[in-house]
Structures are given as C-alpha cells and as structure tokens.
Amino acid sequence: MVLIDSHCHLAGEEFLADLEAVVERAKGAGLSHALVILAANDRAELLRAQSVTAAWPEVRFSIGVHPHAAGVYAERPAAAAEQVAAALDDQPLARAIGEIGLDYHYDFAPRDVQEHVFREQIRLASQRALPIVIHTREAEDDTFRVLAEESHRGGVFHCFTGNRSMATRALDAGFHVSLAGIVTFPKAEELREVARLVPLDRLLIETDSPFLAPVPYRGKRNEPARVGRVAEVVAVARGMTPDAVAEATARNFHNLFAP
User: Fold this and answer.
1) Is 65 helix (H, G, I), strand (E, B) or coil?
2) Burial of 227 (0-12, 13-18, 19+ CB in 10 A)
3) What is the CA radius of gyration of the chain?
4) Which of 47, 51, 95, 204 could make a disulfide contact with 6, Cβ separation 3.0–4.6 Å?
5) How far apart are CA 144 and CA 235, in angstroms?
C-alpha cells in the first residue's frame, strides 16, 4: 500500500528533535510523498524546509499566510501575497499556496483583514496557476463567497470537518476534500458520511501533523505515518479496501499537486 499525507507540518518545531526518525517511520508505513505546509511569515520554518527535504527528498511544499497571522498585514494586505511570492521563488519544491482562508472560531485577526489577505493570496494562486489549500473554520459562507468572487477553482479543503451540504458546496466549487484523523473519532459519524459522499477522484487524506492524532493515538503528537489509520477508517465507511483508498488518494494527490 502506497500512501501520501496531503497535509502535514514537518517543518514545525515539534519535529526538530527527531525529524529523521519521523521520516523513517513514514516510509516504513508505506508513504511515498507528503505535502508539507510552510508559513510564509515564519522565516525559521522556511529555513527548516531544507532539513525536511534532506531527510525526505520526495516531499513537496505549500506556502501561505494562515488566517491567524493575517493581522500582521492589516495596513497592506497585498504584502501577504508578496511575502508568499518571495517564498515560492525561493522554494523550487513548492506546489501550492496555503494554508489560507478564514477562521472565525478564534478571530486572531479581524475578519475583514482575514478576507483581504485571503483574496490577495487567491489572486496570486490564479496568476501562478497553483492550487490552494484552504483552512476554513466557522466561516463557511464567507469562504465560498470569496472563492466565487475571485473565480478560483482548484485546490483542497484541508482537514474537512463540515457536513454533507458543505462538502457538496466544496465539490461544486471545483475543490477536493481532505479528511484527517477526526474522521476516526467515535462521534464523527457525520464526517464518515462525508467520506462516503465525496467522489473517489476528489478525495484526499492527511494527518495535519503534529495535530489531531487519530484513534487510538489521540492526545499524542501526530505524524505522517498515521495517515494509514485515516485510510482504514475511510475505507470502512466507503466499503472499500484500505489499499484502494490509498491508491485513489495518491493518484488524486499527483493530479492536483503535480509533485
């Protein structure tokens, strides 16, 4: 079974001490690739990408300004996209822009500023013909409104936690849907319904490492090796084998991110 983790944060400080061991466990679990998320406004993280690449040459990167950090660009939202563009130019293995979007749960940045920063990055993605990796939390209507107004199609709703209606909206807008460890939680039946709903050619799986470890690892640091657990639960929900889910999601990853 060849697996791909379509969203993880291996360049984060959480993996400084044992990155090589984490990568070895991922490879041992059958992973061929992973998409590693980098924050364009975090110089240290951008530099740590070199260590990630050295440990795992097959990784690819997505670079963006998270909505939590949007407030830094309140005076000039276009500066966020400019910073992302510079980081993309410095990273030959970048294949997407993100994670970007809106987060109204924490409201770490004013909502209007989040939206402006989101728009600027979508426009950059359109200019560069890159897919986007969307983070949206308690901001469904505004997220879809901005996507429609910016006319961008192509990307993924990462760590999807919405219902069937929201999944349908994402699919209709031309996006993939990525499921993370939350799909394994006992009370996540609605999310397992989404796993059944999403067409096989629009489905991705991820860990969002180091966050959201799947059952039975909840409460521990997550890592890419555990994406296989997500595949297993999605497979049960869909009445398929884990191998079939792994094969389809790997193919979708290659089609979307052209690694």
Assistant:
1) coil
2) buried
3) 17
4) 204
5) 29
**Which tokens is 88 given?**
């993309």
The rounded Cα 155 to chain-centroid distance in angstroms is 9
- 55 close to 21: Cβ distance less than 8 angstroms: no
Q: Report whether pLDDT(1) > 90.
A: no
Query: Does pLDDT of 180 surpass 90?
Result: yes
Task: Give the largest CA-CA distance in the chain.
Answer: 51
| Residue in the block written with tokens 């660009």 | 73
Element (H, E) at 29: none
> Degrees (nearest 5) of the Cα angle 171, 164, 124?
35
Two tokens, residue 134: 């969307």
pLDDT at 153: 81
Letter string b/e over residues 175-209, b meaning 16 or more CB atoms within 10 A of that residue's CB: bbbbbbbbbbeeebeebbebbebbeeebbbbbbbb
Domains in the chain: boundaries: 3-257
Question: Which CATH number is 3-257 given?
Answer: 3.20.20.140
65: left (phi over 0), alpha (psi -120 to 50) or beta: beta
pLDDT, average across residues 18-36 = 98
User: Over the chain, what is the mean pLDDT?
Assistant: 97
In this predicted structure, what is the pLDDT of residue 259? 77
Report how far residue 136's alpha carbon sits from residue 115's, in angstroms, rounded to the nearest whole number.
11
Model's pTM, two decimal places?
Answer: 0.97
CB count in 10 Å sphere of residue 152: 21
Neighbouring-strand partners of residue 94: 61
Q: How confident is the model over 182-198, as pLDDT tens digits?
A: 999 999 999 999 999 99
What are the structure tokens assigned to 126, written together? 């359109």
**Quick one: which of 10, 185, 17, 6 has its CA closest to 95?**
6
